[in-house]
Specification:
globular
Amino acid sequence: MKASIIMPTYNNVELIIPCLITLNHQVLEEGDSFEVIVVDDGSNDGTGEAIHELILKYALKYFYIDRSLASSRAAARNLGLTEADGEVIIFLDGDHLVPPHFIQEHLRYHRERDDLVVIGFRNYLTSNDFDVESLKTEFREDLLPEQLPADRLLAIDAFSEKMSNLETVWYFFFTCNASVRRKNMQEAGLFHEGFKGWGLEDCELAYRLYQQGLTFVYAKNALIYHMYHPSEYDENRYQNWLRNLHTFQELHPSVDVQLLQLLKLFFNPEIRLFWFDSYLRFEYAVRAAHGNLPYKGPVSVYTVHSPLDDASLNELIREADERVVFVIDESGDFRTSLSLLCAASRFDLMYYAAPSCPQKEMIFRQIAQYGVWRQVDYGKPIKEEHP
């Protein structure tokens, strides 16, 4: 299976070079390959010259677009898409450091199913105190500077790793780290080039993919590292976002898209409500508009110690049509995990794979708020008794 990585850039030479270097260390399964398509949106900082001097172990296509009033992130990515020939499109921004198993993580989901949108997250480096020369030899996460987790992880804590629990899952499609099969992109259409400046062109594409019936899944091991650079949610960015919100709402006059205006509470620099609080208002407003009111009953709790067969999977999923179900998956089985991440159910199926002790405490606090209908252990190991 081949992946095409689409990477737009503009005057970011100091960041895109380390990004491209880290891609030299990708570890792929036999028969897999990838290409990187860099679309330079009019840089004048020597980006093209610096890229051509790199020694790379993979195929790279470089395209330069003259800067004009028509320039946009959407147009740059669309050029990359028209030049891509991989079965899977991976969107990656050029200001990230990429661990060796990043591409493999995306591909293993698409290898199992052809109807997925795969979402990865990122951590934020608090400085760029790393040695670019050493990156040419190896990528070591333990040598990276201090980092902060993305706010979006709070949504995983609240709604679990099963992102399809979210009525607004399409809002999590950020083109810094996401992938989709090329044939599904072709069916949905390209990025809409009416979006100018910063914001929402990726979410609008994701909304079309969502309407197309694709399943959004969270690939927690496809984590990347955002290099530090100043970025402010100032009045200019807010006005960009408002203009693009208007474009989005004109294209899709649905209640879901209209309710995006609730995120003004975050983007407005005079208010700046915490992102997760703003997002919760948006998600619960969309749920209410769809008649999906907060669940009040007891929940079932499944602890999975070994791979589930089809009958057990179906039983668990059927139960999620009757009540909220929590699943703590200790099996380490990818098929079990993907089956549950993609399952359609009436109520939330709260899925957590190999949670840490602090995560388990958080999960059990959530369960305690509901009460337990029943508790099931699948494949629980038998303890050996010694005299």
